[in-house]
Amino acid sequence: TLHLHYVPLREGGGKPVGALITIRDLTQISMLERARRDLVANVSHELRTPLASLKLLVETVQSAPPPDIASRMLEQMAQEIDAVTQLVDELHELSRLESGRVSLKLEPLPVWPVIERAVERIRPQADRKQQVICVEPAADLPLALMDGDRIGQVLLNLLHNAVKFTPEGGTITVAAEVLTLRDDEQPSRPDRPPHPAGTWLLIRVSDTGIGIPNRDIQRIFERFYKVDRARTRHAGGTGLGLAIAKHLVEGHGGRIWASSQEGHGSTFWFTLPAA
Ligand code: ADP
Question: Which parts of the sequence belong to the Histidine kinase domain (predicted)?
């Protein structure tokens, strides 16, 4: 968007001698304004659904149903409140990340303990769906320069999605390897975003789940982006998890990306600089 302002310059007698033209580039401002409007629209939309269910549940409990039904409804109310709380927490986290108010405590750390902690935390959810989690430890991995808590959070987000979007009995695999890149190797890999030359740790979380259509794969890291709401409606979730993961990984200087074959599974990759 360009904003153009024209002021004719005249002599005392009124004879035109020139003009003062100012052109302001409002592209940035209107993009920000648009992002702000989208955010407000998304947040209101995401809040409306749980609030509508809560309202309905409260009304039903007010009509004094049998005690077993009432207690089931109270249970559902607690779940809806959890969903709203998660949305507000994740929004807060994302806004802190976007405004640069999160400082990472970077230190040289081994990645396996961080991976194992995240896997142990997600295991109960995977067990409930009879899913197997395989970890493929590689030998002699270098230390990563990372904030262990934050990378744990990235892994949890990826594992949580893997469990959520994989049917019962599926398999989730977590692997890590070392990646040594020279500058001249970069163009030959269209499937991997370019990295500065150097040594990286490459971490992979893959699943045998529903997969992600090609047209959506670039966009899933945008905040609130969900693939096909109808298909995933019952899965719950805020659409913020991957946006948060992307911020955290890029804050470490790494990259995060995904590949998928619809109906067969998805793989998420991210890189961390070696210490
Ligand atoms: P959500 O809270 O909805 O999981 P995310 O930002 O974590 O939000 O993910 C965004 C969307 O990306 C999800 O709603 C889903 O459509 C898709 N997605 C993420 N991970 C997977 C996966 N492992 N398999 C299939 N789809 C996925």
Answer: 42-275
Within the chain, residue ranges assigned H as helices are 27-62, 67-98, 111-128, 148-164, 229-232, 241-251
Cα separation, 87 vs 93, in Å, equals 10
Digit-coded pLDDT (tens) for 26-47: 887 887 888 788 888 888 888 8
Ligand 1 interacting residues, C-beta cut-off 6 A = 157, 161-162, 165, 207, 209-212, 220, 225-227, 232, 237-243, 266
Taking 90 as the threshold, does the pLDDT of residue 156 lie above it? yes
**Of 81, 100, 92, nearest in space to 223 by CA:** 92
ipTM: 0.98
Quick count: other Cβ atoms within 10 Å of Cβ 117?
A: 15
The contacts of residue 100 (CB under 8 Å, 6+ apart) are none
State which amino acid sits at residue 241: G
Which residues on neighbouring strands pair with residue 180, listed in sequence order? Answer: 199
Give the closest residue (by CA) to ligand 1 atom 7.
241
Residue 49 has pLDDT above 70, yes or no: yes
pLDDT confidence bin for 232, thresholds 50/70/90: low
Which of the listed residues 226, 240, 267 should we mutate to test ligand 1's pocket, taking the one with most ligand atoms within 8 A of CB? 226
Tokens 């961080």 appear where? 114
Residues whose CB falls within 8 Å of the CB of residue 261, separated by 6 or more in sequence, listed in order: 211
**How many angstroms separate the CA atoms of 222 and 217, rounded?**
10
pTM of the predicted model, to two decimals? 0.83
